[in-house]
Write a sequence for this structure.
């Protein structure tokens, strides 16, 4: 662990150094010494930065698991009840349009201050992309495939698990990726209600007027978002390729 | 085997019934083709038999049992089902696709595997080559074959086929039809076959049920349908050139014994003898075979002048196309027209020569039958 922190700290330092040099060379209008300060801050507090990143990641992963379970289930259910679907999707849409600050404020009277509130708010936000993608993924399957399965005597349950979900999986996964990246951003704001994570860094940076802290927090959020999206994308691709060779 | 009594279907939100008071009886082992213009209710009728659509009135009996009282899943598992779009599962291999019904019936794995490779061989797909492929790696004709294999794997007594050969080119279609008829001759399944192509109907069927606007217009054997159409609608559907349509009804092997079969020349025959043979033949050509009776080629009058040599083998040139004896006379006619020749050589599956059909033979048949 020590080692990892050390190495990460070095990496941050080098990256920031590079940025600093470029910025100086091109004479960009940044506050002089900001990059130097940020690098210094990161190398001094790399253990704290990493801890907050892990906290942030944990918040996102937990939320994502809950959100996927709920949203995929809802998406599947509304794919069977067409009349229901537009209402449910409409509600999800409204939830997503509520500004994140307001949503968090709504949650506080219900769940108090802390981690749970953050998780709840994030779950509500991530409903729409996953529910919608699950629903469209299933609805837009080639009807001939579903009809063939039904006509041959497969039960609705088997059609769902053996045909519909596997075929809709790429579309569902695209929804999960959208939700994940969005969530990583909003999770930073969730620090406002005490959910922890990199948002803490940013908020205390703002209140103290300490810019290096803000920048360090922002860099951390970006790294998590990019890495997460890439991992999900790659994992999905890897998974389906493996599935093919194994089955085939 | 299958009996439809006063069957009707009104789709919700429609005033006009899609199928109206339909009575139809299909005997065991028969191929019954439902034919008619699109929107005539033929597909709807078929889908009511395996209860993809629930009838709004009437009864369906399968082997005397009321199908509407049966568990639809059980009913469907015992009815093979092939649709025009084939509907292969793109995420499963060919083997897994074909094994769908056995898996639903929870057959033992070994038995399923064995049965799958049997049925693949039956439809002309080498199991070793194709079983691990995905549907996207197959041609249209091969997919149709998989579709048929998938419907047949559990050996259901009844099969429903909705334009199963619709999505392929005409040549592949004719080949698939012939293969299917060959399989059906052995299996003797009761088949309900839907098509809008009257030629296909005449070729494939034991009986034809002509439908219009949800009603059954005529149910008869193809030969009766051609000679005694019930009304103007049927005779328009059948078309004017009924004698040509009759060629669909006759297979080459039925007339091959009667036609004056010109003896083939062996490839090492002296050219003098061959010349005499050509003079005598009414197509002015002679088919050449090798010592295993395999088709080697053909020598026409012009070849005698153009080439030189001692024996028949030196003169012969390749034939453009051949035909197998289970094809119909109509197929033979198409081959002749395509090659621009007045004859076509008939061979068996091992390319061994069986005889020659000429345009004159076809004329004789049409004259006799008409």
């Amino acid at each position: 662990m020590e080692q990892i922190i050390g190495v990460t700290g070095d990496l941050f330092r080098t990256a920031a150094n590079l940025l600093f040099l470029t910025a100086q060379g091109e004479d960009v209008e940044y506050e002089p010494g900001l990059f130097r300060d940020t690098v210094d801050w990161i190398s001094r507090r790399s253990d704290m930065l990493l801890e907050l990143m892990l906290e942030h990641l944990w918040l996102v992963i937990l939320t994502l698991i809950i959100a996927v379970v709920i949203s995929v289930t809802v998406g599947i259910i509304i794919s069977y009840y067409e009349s229901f679907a537009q209402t449910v999707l409409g509600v999800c849409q409204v939830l997503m349009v509520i500004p994140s600050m307001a949503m968090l404020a709504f949650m506080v009277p219900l769940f108090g201050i802390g981690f749970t509130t953050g998780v709840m708010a994030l779950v509500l936000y991530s409903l729409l992309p996953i529910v919608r993608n699950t629903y469209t993924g299933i609805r837009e399957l080639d009807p001939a495939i579903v009809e063939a399965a039904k006509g041959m005597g497969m039960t609705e349950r088997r059609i769902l698990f053996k045909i519909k979900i596997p075929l809709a999986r790429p579309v569902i996964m695209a929804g999960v990726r959208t939700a994940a990246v969005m969530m990583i951003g909003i999770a930073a704001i969730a620090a406002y209600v005490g959910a922890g994570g990199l948002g803490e860094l940013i908020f205390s940076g703002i209140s103290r007027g300490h810019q290096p802290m803000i920048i360090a927090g922002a860099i951390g959020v970006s790294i998590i978002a990019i890495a997460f999206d890439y991992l999900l994308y790659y994992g999905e691709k890897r998974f389906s390729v493996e599935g093919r060779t194994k089955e085939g | 085997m299958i009996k439809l009594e006063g069957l009707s279907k009104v789709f919700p939100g429609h005033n006009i019934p899609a199928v109206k008071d339909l009575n139809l009886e299909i005997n065991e082992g028969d191929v019954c083709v439902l034919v008619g213009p699109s929107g005539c209710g033929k597909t709807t009728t078929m889908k009511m038999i395996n209860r993809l659509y629930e009838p709004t009135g009437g009864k369906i009996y399968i082997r005397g049992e009321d199908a509407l009282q049966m568990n639809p899943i059980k009913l469907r598992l015992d009815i093979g089902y092939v649709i025009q779009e084939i509907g292969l599962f793109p995420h499963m291999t060919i083997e897994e696709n074909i094994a769908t019904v056995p898996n639903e019936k929870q057959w033992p794995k070994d038995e399923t595997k064995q049965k799958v490779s049997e049925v693949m061989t039956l439809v002309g797909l080498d199991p070793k080559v194709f079983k691990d492929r995905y549907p996207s790696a197959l041609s249209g004709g091969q997919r149709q074959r998989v579709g048929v294999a998938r419907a047949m794997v559990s050996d259901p007594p009844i099969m429903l086929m909705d334009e199963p050969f619709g999505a392929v080119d005409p040549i592949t279609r004719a080949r698939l039809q012939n293969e299917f008829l060959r399989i059906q001759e052995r299996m003797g399944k009761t088949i309900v076959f839907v098509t809008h192509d009257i030629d296909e109907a005449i070729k494939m069927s034991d009986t034809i049920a002509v439908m219009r606007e949800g009603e059954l217009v005529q149910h008869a054997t193809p030969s009766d349908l051609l000679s005694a159409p019930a009304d103007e609608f049927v005779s328009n559907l059948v078309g004017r050139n009924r004698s040509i349509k009759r060629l669909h009804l006759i297979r080459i092997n039925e007339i091959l014994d009667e036609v004056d079969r010109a003896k083939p020349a062996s490839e090492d025959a002296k050219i003098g003898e061959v010349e005499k043979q050509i003079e005598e033949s009414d197509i002015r050509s002679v088919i050449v075979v090798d010592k295993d009776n395999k088709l080697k080629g053909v020598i026409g009058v012009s070849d005698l002048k153009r080439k030189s040599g001692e024996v028949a083998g030196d003169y012969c040139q390749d034939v453009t196309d051949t035909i197998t004896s289970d094809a119909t006379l109509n197929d033979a006619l198409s081959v002749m027209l395509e090659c621009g020749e007045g004859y076509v050589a008939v061979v068996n599956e091992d390319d061994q020569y069986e005889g020659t059909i000429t345009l004159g033979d076809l004329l004789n048949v049409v004259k006799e039958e008409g």
